[in-house]
């Protein structure tokens, strides 16, 4: 009977509010469930834009989100554009531009990487998921570890 009630009432609207009906959970169980839903939602968003999102760095402080969007819009539909900023709102010199298709992002990458923007050469690369970036850095460090170690130990102080 309880399962039927959950099935019948969960997600229904009453007084213009959507109801959540489910098994009673302890607070930590509910928090875990919400966290998993949030992570899944974030993963779906990232996957949706995978290949269509570019990472930018070496941005001049004078470049705004609007200016960046304007610069990249000639290559296609810019779905989002964000310059990373510190707590005081000052540019960190990097950001992201997302396009509606990976093809648009590829065109923008080819045309804009190295282009002078506000007197500085712009670095443009495909945006990577944090896990991919960490794994790639681990491989680089592992493969070059002997080189890095020999440089450190052979340095005359």
UniProtKB/TrEMBL annotation:
Write down the superkingdom of origin.
Eukaryota
**InterPro entries attached to this UniProt entry:** Nucleotide-bd_a/b_plait_sf, RBD_domain_sf, RRM_dom, RRM_euk-type
Looking up Pfam families in the UniProt record yields: RRM_1
Q: Which residues form the RRM domain?
A: 52-129
Segments traversing the membrane: none
Alphabetic keyword roster: Repeat, RNA-binding
Q: Name one GO molecular function term.
A: RNA binding
Say yes or no: keyword DNA-binding present: no
**Record's keyword annotation contains Electron transport:** no
Q: Which PANTHER family match?
A: RNA BINDING PROTEIN
Question: What is the name of this protein?
Answer: Polyadenylate-binding protein 8-like
Q: Which organism is it from?
A: Trifolium medium
């Amino acid at each position: 009977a309880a399962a039927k009630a959950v099935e019948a009432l969960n997600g229904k609207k009453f007084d213009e509010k959507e109801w959540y009906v489910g098994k009673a959970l302890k607070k930590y169980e509910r928090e875990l469930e919400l966290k998993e839903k949030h992570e899944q939602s974030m993963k779906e968003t990232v996957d949706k834009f995978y290949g269509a999102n570019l990472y930018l760095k070496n941005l001049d402080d004078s470049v705004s989100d609007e200016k960046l969007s304007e610069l990249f819009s000639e290559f296609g539909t810019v779905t989002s554009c964000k310059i990373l900023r510190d707590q005081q709102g000052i540019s960190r010199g990097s950001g992201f531009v997302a396009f509606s298709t990976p093809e648009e992002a590829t065109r923008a990458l080819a045309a804009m990487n190295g282009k002078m923007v506000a007197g500085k050469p712009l670095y443009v690369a495909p945006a990577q998921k944090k896990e991919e970036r960490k794994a790639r850095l681990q491989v680089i460090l592992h493969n070059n570890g002997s080189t890095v170690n020999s440089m450190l130990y052979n340095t005359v102080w």
